[in-house]
Design brief:
This protein has 318 residues and is α+β, with helices and mostly antiparallel strands. It contains ten helices and 14 strands. The strands form two sheets. A seven-stranded antiparallel β-sheet has the order 3-2-4-1-10-9-11, with helices on one face. Strands 5-6-7-8-12-13-14 form a seven-stranded antiparallel β-sheet.
Length: 318
Amino acid sequence: MKKFHFILFFLFVFMAHEAHACRFWCAIGDKVPARFVNSQLLEAPNSLKQLGEEYQDGWAVGYYSKKEPFIARGAETSLTDLNYDQAVRETAAVEADIIIGHLRRASSGCVEGVPNPHPFIREKMGKTWIFGHNGGMKKQILIDLIGEEYLTKNKPEVCDHAPPKSWIDSELYFIYLLKMIEQSRGDVEQGINAALSQLYAILGEGRRYLNFFLSDGMSIWAFRKGTSLYYLMDDKLDIAAVTSTVPDDKYNWVEFPNNTLARLQKGRRISFYKPIAVESMEMPKRLLEDQGEDALSTSGTQDPTMLDTMIHLYETRN
């Protein structure tokens, strides 16, 4: 009976967090077909438009053109905002090589009357990056990991009127990932791995809500940990895609493996990378102290959830 109650409690906690997480959808191809975009973002039973009934803190739809992002945003729910419908149709008509959609359910930073800040946009390493998050974590953890020097030079650009209270955890997550990619000399997989290594060491299993997508205008990286994620490869449409919620049953969406990073590229290519365990990890002293005596006593011991190196598992191509 105790085991049964524990399972019910776990499901309740997971479903509660899932309900508070944002939703995102991304696709890449030589040309992402307009009919597919309209179907997934407007017409399907679980399209981002319909999900706006539950995720009411704004929407964003956009695409890359010549490696530069063009993003339309709204502060109202996508369910009733006619600007959302127009933005989707205009985005779909472009048939760009990368198209994204995002719905916000705010849990951090400014909220009222603010157009959805996802995807965040930043210039780094000669590229224009966009980032969307589906989860949440304590901002102070990210602030400490980023470090004062780097954060001073790379301050959050959204909701910056009353920092750090007004800052959004997702933008700090973005800044931290870019910092680690920079330190990895532009190697995106290794930079992400380095960032996740630190976060896995700090965050307990029940607090790792780390799903995200990241793009540099040429590829899309997606990571799953903590909430739902699915991927799609379709040879007729010649696209690869990821989504937080499956819009309908017309396409063969597959559940994304947990604790896994994927790189989506043109040609219906998805490369999966799996982290492996390490024996120890050097952590900033303040971060360990913030986690209490348990973290201090277990630092340096083997934890199978920690990450060290991304193993390239396989590449899937239709």
